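Researcher: I'm comparing several assemblies side by side, and this is the next one on my list. It has 813 residues spread over two chains. Same procedure as the others: predict the full complex and return the structure.
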Amino acid sequence: MNLRKIFKFREAGILFALLFIWVVTAILNPRFLSSYNLQLLSRQIAVFGLIAIGETFVILTEGIDLSPGSVIVLTSVLVASFISSGMGVPCAIFLTLLVAVVIGLWHGILITKLKVPPFIITLGTFAMGRGLATVITKGQPVLNLPDSFSFIWHGMFFKFLPFPVLILIIVSGFSIFLLSRTIYGRHIYAVGGNITAARLSGINVDSTRILTYVLSAVMAGIVGILITSRLGQGNPNVGVTYEMYAIAAAVIGGTSLFGGIGTIIGALIGAGILTAVWNSLVLLQVSSYWHQVILGMIIVVAVTVDVLREKTKGKGG
Amino acid sequence: MEKIVKTFPGVKALDDVDLEVYKGEVLALVGENGAGKTTLMEILNPHPAPTGFYQQESGKIYFEGREIKLRGPLDAQNVGISFIHQHFNLAPNLSVCENILLGREPRKGGILGIIDKKKMKETAADYLSKLGVKFSADTPTGDLGVAQKQMVEIAKALSVYAKLLIMDEPTAPLTDNEVDKLFAIVNKLKKEGITFIFVTHKLNEVFKMCDRVVVLRDGKNAGSIETKEATEETITQMMVGRDLKMFPERKTNIGGKIFEVKNLTREGLIENVSFEVKKGEILGLYGLVGAGRTETMRAIFGLDQLDKGEIYIDGEKVSIKSPADAINKGIGFVPEDRQSQGLVPLMSIKENITLPVLDRISKSKVIKGEEEKRIVGKYIDELKISPGEPDSAVKGLSGGNQQKVVLAKWLASCPKILILDEPTRGIDVGAKAEIHFRISLLALQGLGVIIVSSELPEIIKMSDRILVMAEGKITGEFLSEEATEEKIIGCAVMEN
């Protein structure tokens, strides 16, 4: 039995689902294929894709990160505050991502050294991140961002590739390489597959897990900066329920909540499906009240499939 | 049972098996992994499985002269067949008496169906006293030890008037002392006319306990023999169908000291443990459960911090704070449970083998694919791992092949000292013989080997020198020529 072939097949299945949603939407509403909509779609895939990649790293080690939405809002108001207080854009971005790294370290260290469950520690950040964002801004948007900053979201690379998509391609390439070709990737799969065996093989299990939380927080930080650029302001109300999108995209993409199974390509397709569903609902003029309901249903189906897969695996031997 | 056939998709698990059991006997059912023991017994106790109920496709089952048809667990219970699984079916949150009479609680109050607690307790206590156990019927089952839970299972079987009791690996989780107690109870019940079938791996217990042995091989009945007339060799031979040497002829080439520990101490667990291993020597370490064997090995491998003690490799004092340190200093550790400690089941053979040596086969943290393939190919050939496909997932392999992957993994790290904790537990005799052979070869090539094992024959036949531990201390040391089971056990149970 070749595991890799099964993964390929699995991803082929969800890729087919993605194409199916695209085709149906395009037939029902030809505006789907307008260049405006395609740009919108691809930028949104970048947003979901980045947090899905971060979440995939964490879930691969049998962890969970509930903080992406709150890290997004915190980094958004931070980068806006830095810039509006006169700091240069590159410096502000660097500093903001550094804050994301610190948040990731905070999660990782408490989880590995103090044995706080991932669910709880990231739930803490879920509350604190959004709270801090409101404290910093007193609930008001941070305005007066320079035009140069808006390039990050609205800019085009060689006139055809939206800049966020370029970022997604670079990050995906880096992540795929990390997981499939480097020691770190092998360690992540080993820790998720069997943490005891990984430890006995001389793997530094703690730093491997810490790394995944840092990567997840940095991805959320990048998305925070992208969204700030899109809105032209640091808004303390962005990123709500994004942790759900991150987990949903990873799981739809075939990442097992039991750890050890999952790929970046899967996460990207998962993000594509979420975006496609959301985009089609808008184009097909389904009331926005229904969006959350439908998203919830998709998550339930994806997780149930994962649980059933785990069950049959256990029995099949 | 007559001409039982059971096929699974792709495999004929049972092929025209006949099995006769006589009233009041203790029958041992033995065979290699996959020989069909469990499948045969499941047919006597049909239960829902992912592939549907276990039921024979052809063949008939007779019980007390009458043909019976078993379609579900209740059918079996009604005719008087009870099955005690290796993993008990008890609800830990319920009390002992609730478990014993689960589903058959005595009732009062007519249709209200109130449980008659008093009567329930009395009935359960009755069965428990028959077994001579000391705990009360009120005890929450979750608080009991493994051996006590087994007694509850037996009491449960008695309460449904079982005439035939099937036990799957009943002694696996028990200590030697508890095994003896179990045997005493089985003997007592046997005299009352209850018949037992033991499905087991442990041949030495077959001789202590059973009247007759039936051997299954490749889904066929390979013969039956009275235990009085059998020897371990004859049974093994029946199991594998050929002559098999369990233990290789040892040639030894023992050199100078390469490994030494002095005064290893962990508060409350091990105390002043000192020993040495020479190049090319196999050191056997024996002790009862809780004697501190595994704790000693864990400490040497950097898994637990020592309170005191020194470790020397090649005469040089080394400091080991983590498994990574131990591996770098040349120690390999094959842990006792390959499923939960030795392997990452989802990963491929290749990925498992190179896990401890990734640093050595990579350049700036990027794994060199060619180098990895070369190493893995080498060990697959050398150890005859089957299937020899580096990319197959290890979870699909047989126990013996999985153990070879664990061995390959540690050989790839080129250790000077290899620690093997229960290297042949739960694998079939063929693979066992091969692993013994492999270990003796490694010693001959100059490795220092430490074998920790609960199997006395393995310890005595494989080791050049034997250490015995009890209560965290080393209580005996023998050269293999002078060691006997009695002497070793004498040291292992030494009080204070």
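Model: For your comparison table: Chain A has a mean pLDDT of 90.
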